[in-house]
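Could you show me just one protein sequence together with its fold in token form as a worked example?
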Amino acid sequence: MRSGFTLMESIATIVILAILGSIASFLVVDAVDGYVSASGSAQLHAEASLAMDRIMRELRKIELDPDHVPPPDVAPHIDAVTANSINWWEEGVGAHSLSWSATAGDPLMLAIDGAAAIILIDDITGFTVSTFDAANLALPAVPSAAERETIRRIAVVLTIQRSGITESVQTKVFIRSTMSGGGV
């Protein structure tokens, strides 16, 4: 008797190994896709968080309007607010502008004292600015000059999208100069 495998046994072994190999490859592909998605999401979140940190730093520094009357009241030196932008003045530095064109994919821009605007973050799909008074009541999307004087908090929502991955971050900033003892 000869020892060895028949042709049928060899073919059956090859088929079983092919099935096991294809199942294993699907598991590996799924794991790699999950890693790529998670790393892409983490990258977007890191970029959005960095941009939001800069936005928070800039908005917190909004100073009081020196021309505001009556003197006991305080008013931030905010020149304009829309749903997608805010403009303010900083003594010794000049005009500041944080804006988005409301076109998906365009960058969020920060301009300081007429210098060329810098890009805080690209691929924006949403950027909204909301303002609130001392009682934390929402002000209109485009507040009047009198309503801008009552702004005490600014909420910002930032949404970015790349390669099918969307990330949103939001914050509500208290303007330090308008807080009790904050520069009155």
Remarks:
- Strands lie at 78-82, 85-90, 94-99, 108-112, 118-121, 124-132, 153-162, 165-174.
- The chain has a mean pLDDT of 89.
- Residues 38-178 form one domain.
